[in-house]
Amino acid sequence: MRTLFAAVLTMLVAVPSWAAAPAAPPPPPPAAPAAETPVVVEATGAVDFSKGGLGVEGAKEKARDVALREAINKVVGTTITSSSEMADFTLVRDVVFSQTAGFIRKYDILDTKVDDQAETVTVKVRAEVLKGQVDKDAAAIATLLSYKKQKRVYVMITDVSTETVGGKASGQVATIRHGVFDAAFADKLRQDGFTVLDPNMVDGKLKNRAAVQALGTPQEAAELADAVGADLIFYGNAQAGKVEEAAGVVDGKNLIAADVRYAVSVTAPDAREQLASVTGTAMLSGYTLTDATNKAIGKAADQALKEMRTRIYETWRKHMTGPARIVMTVTGLKDWGMFKAFKTLLTSQVRGVKELTSDKFDKGTALIDVAMVGTVDNLASDLSGKTFKGLTINVNKVSGNTIELALGK
């Protein structure tokens, strides 16, 4: 490395006693924080494909998930407690509690081995593991989206302002729909890898768009999602208005300020789960009220989505390393006693089920929230075709966060 030397000539100059000393040079800007380097580790996961009707292909996916969780645990550390028991048709209690603060940035599958004699599949992965916030890393977001399989989103955020048309004395108040919030959200979500449903294509599937413009609850969002085929629904409203105080003057022109108040939520409708809900305000100025309003709405959208992305991806990261919430519907249960027995089967004979919460039973149909280490596909594979009380467990529907079962002959 070269070293540069400079000669310095010092001169004595008579300076009046009242002269100010020369200003000290400004301090150098703080150094940018160094990007964290991912830790590369190798990990292995093994699954018995004879249990739970997995089959070889289902076992490969499940073994990969096990390997990825093990990779995170190697880097970040974890507290694990587990217990296993033997039941009628499978080995089965495997309760794992994990608290980690890492995520998979990306991974490669190094090897997949199928042992027909032992009826097991073993998958070895090489993974890049990072600590910190997953929303700061595009590769990690892509991995999460692949894992969650919830890429189809619909954005319905109403951004409006009111303006007086025709003067204050005789004019009328007009409500103006800007569409800036929707567009800003859609653009960023596409960059993350989501498929944003085109409202022009979707609106034809809605009986009455006006009826859902004021969408305000997860239940309403779930009904909308069923109609349009969305995995996630972003909904809410943003109200813009003029700030009466003068915003200043630039190049001899008066500036006009506008402020925006917003409340936006995102829900995974199939699980009736609200992933994030944010509120806030934003203000910017412009040469016209329309210009100022659109700028303020754009700033509000950026603020809201930044916070929501952090919450969504952090929730999904926890699902990847710990228990996720799955909504299960079961039909064909004869009575309350059979319902209780089925819950016992889930907690004692299905690998990865940690606990059952918020269960309901009515006229042979049960709705159960399942906290599970693993994916809904893993759960479906474990239950499909098994026998319970002389009846076969049939899997009728599987989506990102839900599973529908029917008991029958």
Task: Describe what you observe in this structure.
Helix 2 packs across helix 7 and helix 3 packs parallel to helix 7. The protein is α+β, with helices and mostly antiparallel strands. The longest helix is centred in the C-terminal third of the chain and has 33 residues, at 289-321. Strands 4, 5, 6, 7, 10 and 11 form a 6-stranded mixed β-sheet that branches. The chain has a 6-stranded mixed β-sheet with strand order 13-14-12-17-16-15. The protein has helices at residues 55-76, 138-148, 180-192, 199-202, 209-212, 218-228, 289-321, 336-349, 376-383; strands at 39-48, 102-115, 120-131, 152-165, 172-177, 195-196, 232-243, 249-250, 253-254, 256-268, 273-286, 324-331, 353-362, 365-372, 387-388, 391-398, 402-408. Residues 1-23, 30-35, 78-100 and 207-213 have low confidence and may be disordered. It has 9 helices and 17 strands.
